[in-house]
Specification:
heterodimer, A: alpha+beta, 2 domains, 11-stranded mixed β-sheet, two-stranded antiparallel sheet, 15 strands, elongated, B: alpha/beta, Rossmann fold, 5-stranded parallel β-sheet, 4-stranded antiparallel β-sheet, 10 helices, 38% helix, 23% strand
């Protein structure tokens, strides 16, 4: 009989406590794997959302609010900026291009953003990637022309089951508000991008100014001096090697000193967002570590109680030639098998949680998460499980090592 | 010689003063021989076997078994010694309950250097008349059958010496004779030496070399101490 068969046999003999220990470790590992994977992907996704936008020109107010509204289609813009000021910023030699937009409208729970048409044709939401309407990419139709036309992000079209030609009436405000009488037709659906841009509806900038009920701002469509926008995405010219132009900071300083607007660099603001939500994933991580710790304790208890029942068996093995080291190895092996098996189960369960969670998160935010994403937790799993197995098995293994043979054989004669 | 004992003294600490359980000036057993040591319960027979098996260290004296000086060996060396040279049969069989008969026999090979040989395990069970009980667990076997499995397990590693501690203690006289004959025959076939300790005169009578332990053990005749206290303390048979 090989030693590994003795290990498996012993585990089978105590299948109930072994099972509980495996489940406990699996739950802890699953939570850890899921939390770390979602956390890493959330960070990557949120950072990536700002990749296509070097800076956002927005009104005075909270920079975080501008990023949330401008990039994630959440919250509201704290005000407006004047078109001439935007033009002045555009004239700065380090600005490569600007895409102005107006927010503040919605339809069926999704934001309706009025935006320059170049957003749909030229804007790179990721380096080298522009929006696609090609069916092979998952898109449909075309970009809007001027007039009462709209393009839906992929998630909007999917959730509202939009078909081209279908019409809607935008609502003033982001939740409930007066409905405009304008009937705007969907002429295109963007191919999925895995960014928050999938969760918005886009209409032409001029259409926004001329919506029914916008009589007071209708002049903005024709009079640039009078025109206002919520903000603008700015692309900054890169210096040699693709690095960000250092003059961005001085431009930002100048703009922020003015009373007209502010310049927000998403890459600087997003870490602050992570700081704000950091405690949430910290709490999840703490719970996961606690559950894993509980699993380890459960493994220890299960091994100790199994050892109590097996004193005689171990003494017998010693009497027929098993060395102290063999016995130590057997108990440690049992612990390792339980922790590795539990870990493997937890790994699958964890990625299962990410798979389920990713569908929900994508539906809610448009951010794309992959259940196959290999996180730090996956990489650290194997060595961590070996450590957990050895730690939990050490105490009972030493007990088995020290076990007195004759005392536990209880000779009868 | 397979076993040589010289000035062997085994003591137990009973809390107040050390209790001498075994005091043997000299005894030896030639290779291939079979000996029965008999005596009443509590006279130290099992203690002697434990010493010869390297399970119990004497206070003093020389214990040479299969060419190994046991008193000079480390605990780990003693484990290896048992695995390589000795087969031990207990009165209460000490079979692992979760293992089938053949697995219990295979366990006898697990800790030695030789490869576990399922074919040999089955052959041994066949020799002890249990070919039809190979996959039965101890709880599914009769007491006599359990002792046969224990014999097969002791023989599994082809040991040079088999130590049997009251192997028939749990059996009725008819089965006792049968099991002892089986054990003796198996040892003869495998060419290994055998020491059986028993309080049963019927068992001892069949051996050529039958030793009354009271004669061998000076401690028993000298002290005359009631052994109940020692038995209660554990380890003295």
């Amino acid at each position: 009989m090989r030693l590994w068969r003795i290990v498996l046999k012993s585990l089978r003999q105590h299948s109930l406590s072994t099972g509980f220990a495996v489940v406990n470790i699996a739950l802890g590992v699953a939570l850890l794997v899921a939390v770390v994977s979602l956390r890493e992907q959330a960070h990557a996704n949120l950072t990536q959302a700002g990749v296509g936008v070097d800076a956002i020109l927005g009104p005075k107010g909270s920079p975080l609010q501008i990023v949330l509204n401008g990039l994630y289609h959440m919250d509201e813009m704290p005000g407006k900026i004047k078109w001439p000021y935007y033009q002045k910023v555009l004239a700065n030699p380090i600005v490569q291009e600007g895409i102005p937009f107006c927010t503040g409208h919605s339809y069926a729970g999704f934001r309706v953003n009025a935006i320059d048409r170049r957003f749909l044709t030229d804007f790179e939401y990721l380096p080298g990637k522009t929006f696609s309407f090609r069916p092979e990419d998952g898109g449909r139709g075309r970009a809007f022309a001027d007039g009462e036309e709209a393009v839906a992000g992929w998630a909007v079209a999917k959730e509202l089951r939009l078909s081209l030609g279908q019409t809607f009436n935008p609502v003033c405000g982001v939740s409930a508000g007066p409905m405009h009488k304008n009937t705007i037709a969907f002429v295109g659906v963007l191919a999925p991008t895995g960014t928050p841009h999938d969760r918005a509806i886009y209409i032409p900038l001029n259409t926004f100014y001329t919506l029914d009920g916008h009589e007071s701002v209708a002049r903005m469509a024709v009079d640039e001096q009078y025109r206002e926008i919520s903000g603008a995405y700015l692309k900054i010219k890169r210096v040699r090697g693709g690095a960000m132009n250092l003059n961005l900071q001085s431009m930002k300083y100048d703009i922020n000193q003015s009373t007209e607007a502010q310049l927000v660099v998403p890459g600087e603001v997003l870490p602050r967002l992570f700081e704000i939500i950091g405690w949430v994933d910290g709490a999840f991580l703490a719970v996961a570590v606690l559950v894993t710790g509980l699993g380890t304790t459960c493994l220890l208890v299960s091994l100790v109680s199994a050892l109590r029942e097996r004193r005689r068996d171990i003494a017998l093995m010693r009497s027929i030639g098993a060395t102290r080291r063999t016995v130590l190895g057997l108990v440690l092996s049992e612990s390792l098998v339980i922790s590795l098996f539990g870990g493997l189960l937890g790994l699958m369960l964890g990625h299962g949680i990410v798979w389920i969670g990713s569908r929900y998160i994508q539906a809610e935010t448009g951010l794309r998460f992959s259940w196959l994403h290999l996180s730090l937790a996956d990489a650290a799993l194997l060595p961590a499980l070996v450590v957990v197995g050895l730690l939990a098995g050490l105490f009972p293994a030493v007990q088995a090592y020290r076990l007195g043979v004759l005392r536990n054989l209880r000779p009868v004669s | 010689m397979i076993v040589e004992l010289k000035d062997l003294i085994v003591e137990y600490d009973l809390g107040t003063a050390p209790f001498t359980a075994v005091d043997i000036p000299a005894w030896s057993l030639a290779r291939g021989r079979q000996a029965a040591i008999h005596g009443p319960s509590g006279c130290g027979k099992s203690t002697l076997l434990h010493v010869v098996a390297g399970l119990l260290a004497p206070r003093s004296g020389r214990v040479r078994v299969c060419g190994n000086e046991l008193t000079e060996m480390s605990e780990s060396d003693l484990d290896h010694f048992r695995a390589a040279h000795v087969g031990y049969i207990f009165q209460d069989f000490n079979l692992l309950q979760g293992y089938t008969a053949v697995e219990n026999v295979l366990l006898g090979m697990a800790f030695s250097r030789q490869k576990p040989d399922r074919h040999r395990a089955r052959e041994l069970l066949d020799r002890v008349g249990l070919s039809h009980r190979v996959k039965h667990r101890p709880a599914q076997l009769s007491i006599g059958e359990r002792q046969r499995v224990a014999i097969a397990r002791a023989l599994a590693r082809k040991p040079e010496l088999i130590l049997a501690d009251e192997p028939t203690g749990s059996l009725d006289p008819a089965h006792a004779g049968e099991v002892v004959n089986l054990l003796r025959e198996a040892c003869r076939q495998d060419g290994c030496s055998l020491i059986v300790v028993s309080h049963d005169p019927g068992v001892v009578g069949s051996f050529d070399e039958a030793i009354a332990f009271m004669e061998l053990n000076r401690a028993f005749s000298a002290s005359g101490t009631p052994r109940a206290a020692a038995v209660a303390a554990g380890g003295v048979a």
